[in-house]
Each structure stands twice: as C-alpha cells, then as structure tokens.
C-alpha cells in the first residue's frame, strides 16, 4: 500500500470510532449547540456588546465547537498508545505519519461538522452576518487552520499522557481557555488581571479575526496575530507529537 492509502485507512478507522462513540458525538457536535442556546437565550440579555448578542457570540461559539471535540481526540490517541494498537501498526509497517495524520484529519472533519451544525442553528436564532463570499472563505480557512493546529497539539497531549483519564484531563485547559477570551464578552468588560490575560492569550485574536470576517470588517493586525498563533501551535504540536510517538511507539 502507498503512504496515501495507509493515511486514508487510518482516517476511515478514526472517523468511524468517533461516529460510533455517543459521548464523542455529543461533546463535539451537540454540546456547542447547547452552549449557544444557553448563552443566547439564558444569558444573552445580561450582556451589552453593542450588537445583537447572537452576532457577537457566534464566532466565539465556533471556536468553542473546535475545542469541545479535543478531549475525545486526546483519549482516542492515548488509548491506541496504552493498549498497544500503535505498536501493532508499527509491526505491520504502517508509516508513522499515517497513524498521526489520521487522528488529525478526523479531528478536523469532526470540527467542520460541528461548526456547520452550530452555524445552521445560529441562523435559525437570528444570526445575520455581513460577510462577503471572500470573507466566508477567510472564516473557513481560519477554522481549518485552527482545527489543524489544535488537533496536532491534542494528539501530542494524548501521546504524552500516561492513561486515557490523564489524557482527557490534559485537554481541559484548551477547552476552558475560550471562556477567558473575548468569546462570551469583550475583554474590556472583564476585571483586572483577567482582562489582560484575555487580551493577550492566543484565542482572543483568533476570535476577533473570525468576528471581523463575519462582520465584513476584518482587521489586518488581528489576522496576522491569529495566523501566527495558529502556525505556532501547529508547529509545537507536530514536533512534540512526532518526538513522543518516536519515543513511545
């Protein structure tokens, strides 16, 4: 089999595992939709953000949709490692990159499904973006890049963890980080300390770039910062995952 064929087989295996796991489907696809309902209908009137809250919150919910699926990816990677599945693949002479790439691509595809479902529900709730066709391409490109970057970092966390339970816990900071960004409310409305953290953490410029694209007014400075963070996270995750895989497998 060619390297491409190996990668496709691994992708089919990983995506099938995600689809057959109700907990993974709930966390990756349904939970972001529930969060959108909760923040818009339960808490939306409590926030004054200068625009309809659904328009403000949807970009942040897109990022949350990416992060909520990461725990399942970390657990799946670790389970394959600790149960000896990856070592069996190695004995079968399956290329290393095929095993890892399958996990990453399956995670990205899951993200796209989750964001598509979230966006559809957001439109039903009154979401009215001003984005042009080019702006939507920017949204899709940034979502793909962020999903790719966080997937590699999550694969690295899963490989480094000692058990599936530890792997699930290792992904919690990535899941919680959007709540300390401008996803829910503007950073300027936060208290001292949290405000500065929200302004300089990686997810805030990414969310603001998504928000700018959807409003039809993307800011170059936010876009450059978001791109730099995504590339940096992807590079760290890839190098860490490759080194850990080589050491443990």
TrEMBL record:
It is found in: Cell membrane; Membrane. It comes from the Bacteria. The chain crosses the membrane at residues 25-44, 56-79, 100-124, 136-160, 167-187, 223-241. It is a multi-pass membrane protein. Keywords: Antibiotic resistance, Cell membrane, Membrane, Transmembrane, Transmembrane helix, Transport. Residues 23-248 form the ABC transmembrane type-2 domain. Belongs to the ABC-2 integral membrane protein family. This is Transport permease protein.
């Amino acid at each position: 089999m060619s390297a491409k064929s190996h990668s496709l087989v691994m992708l089919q295996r990983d995506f099938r595992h995600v689809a057959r796991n109700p907990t993974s489907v709930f966390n990756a696809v349904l939970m972001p939709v529930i969060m959108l309902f909760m923040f818009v209908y339960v808490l939306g009137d409590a926030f004054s953000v200068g625009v309809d809250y659904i328009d403000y919150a949807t970009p942040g919910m897109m990022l949350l949709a990416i992060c909520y699926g990461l725990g399942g990816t970390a657990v799946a990677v670790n389970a394959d490692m600790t149960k000896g599945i990856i070592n069996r693949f190695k004995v079968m002479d399956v290329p290393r990159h095929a095993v890892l790439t399958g996990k990453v691509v399956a995670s990205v595809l899951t993200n796209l499904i989750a964001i598509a479902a979230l966006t559809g529900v957001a439109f039903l709730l009154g979401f009215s973006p001003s984005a042009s066709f080019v702006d939507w391409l920017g949204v899709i490109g940034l979502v793909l890049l962020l999903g790719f970057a966080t997937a590699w970092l999550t694969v690295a966390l899963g490989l480094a963890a000692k058990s599936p339970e530890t792997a699930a816990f290792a992904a919690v900071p990535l899941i919680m980080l959007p709540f300390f960004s401008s996803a829910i409310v503007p950073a300027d409305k936060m208290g001292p300390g949290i405000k500065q953290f929200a302004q300089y953490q990686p997810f805030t410029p990414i969310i603001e770039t998504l928000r700018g694209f959807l409003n039809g007014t993307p800011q170059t400075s936010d876009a450059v910062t978001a791109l730099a963070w995504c590339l940096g996270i992807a590079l760290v995750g890839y190098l860490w995952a490759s080194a850990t895989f080589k050491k443990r497998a």
